[in-house]
């Protein structure tokens, strides 16, 4: 057990670049598959930083582990633990904070432009006014009471919110790597409909992929550095194991 906890929900929605960055800094972390019951019995008082990854399921699905994970997230929020959610993870955080999650009339997929709202928030300190993030989702979250609206896209207004000083919920996938994108397209491109303006074709998604991923890595690392600083401070990072 370590001080950094990553919650996952399916094997093909891995921590991606988050794990790469933690490994590069020599930071140990624990990965749990909550859909397999691995959160059961876990000491919720231990972690000092928690990340929640994506998955194909909906927060509204009748799956017993979803309630277990939401209750765990509520405990982390009560403990004032730095918490960052990606796609399904962001939706789970929104639900834990009392917000609705609902189906959109379309799927948003591919490289979509995100625009900063008029928010002077430290989670966004590294970002320009507009930048692309990889997307693949059909659900979206409402903003919880007290949340600060941070980012929007043309197809999904609620792309990110901050709640308090230590919670960030993201609708997109800043964690993706080249391998993740290629694997998702290999296995799931049959679910896409490129005639829909909210979706890119696989060809569009793969165009200039290395450069796009490199730029996205910088976006993700800004989020992750702030998340780690909140948990451990600059000096404490060197001691996290």
Structural features, described:
This protein is an alpha/beta fold. The protein has one domain (4-239): Rossmann fold. The chain is 32% helix and 24% strand. The protein has a nine-stranded mixed beta sheet, with helices on both faces. The model has no long low-confidence stretch (mean pLDDT 95).
Layout of helices and strands, plus pairs?
Blueprint: E1 4-8, H1 17-24, E2 30-33, E3 49-52, H2 64-78, E4 83-86, H3 88-96, E5 101-116, E6 130-141, E7 148-152, E8 160-163, E9 167-170, H4 178-188, H5 202-206, H6 209-236
Helix pairs in contact: 2-3
Descriptors for this entry?
241 residues; alpha/beta; Rossmann fold; 6 helices; 24% strand
Helix content: 25-40%
Rg (C-alpha, Å): 17 Å
Task: Output the structural class.
Answer: alpha/beta
**Biggest β-sheet: count, sense, barrel?**
9 strands, mixed
CATH superfamily: Class I glutamine amidotransferase (GATase) domain
What overall form do the CA principal axes indicate? globular
Order of helices and strands: EHEEHEHEEEEEHHH
CATH architecture: 3-Layer(aba) Sandwich
Strand content: 15-25%
CATH class: Alpha Beta
Average predicted confidence as pLDDT: 95
Number of strands: 9
Low-confidence stretches: none
Number of helices: 6
CATH topology name: Rossmann fold
First-to-last CA distance: 10 Å
* Strand numbers in spatial order across the main sheet: 2-1-3-4-9-8-7-5-6
Structural domains: how many: 1
């Amino acid at each position: 057990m370590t001080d950094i906890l990553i919650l996952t929900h399916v094997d093909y929605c891995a921590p991606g670049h988050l794990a790469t960055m933690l490994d590069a800094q020599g930071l140990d972390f624990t990965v749990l598959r909550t859909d397999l019951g691995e959160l059961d019995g876990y000491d919720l008082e231990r972690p000092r930083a928690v990340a929640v990854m994506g998955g194909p399921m909906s927060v509204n699905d009748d799956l017993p582990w979803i309630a277990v994970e939401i209750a765990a997230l509520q405990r982390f929020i009560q403990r004032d633990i730095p918490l960052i959610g990606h796609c399904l993870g962001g939706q789970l955080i929104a639900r834990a904070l009392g917000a609705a999650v609902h189906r959109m009339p379309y799927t948003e997929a591919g490289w979509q432009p995100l625009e900063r709202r008029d928010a002077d928030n430290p989670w966004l300190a590294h970002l320009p006014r507009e930048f692309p993030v990889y997307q693949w989702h059909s659900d979206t979250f409402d903003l919880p009471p007290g949340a600060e609206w941070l980012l929007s896209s043309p197809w999904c207004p609620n792309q990110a919110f901050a709640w308090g000083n230590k919670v960030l919920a993201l609708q997109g996938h800043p964690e993706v790597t080249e391998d993740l994108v290629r694997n998702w397209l290999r296995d799931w491109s049959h679910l896409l409909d490129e005639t829909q303006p909210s979706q890119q074709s696989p060809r569009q998604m793969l165009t200039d992929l290395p450069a796009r991923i490199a730029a996205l890595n910088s976006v993700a690392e800004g989020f992750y550095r702030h998340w780690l600083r909140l948990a451990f401070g600059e000096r404490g990072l060197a001691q996290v194991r």
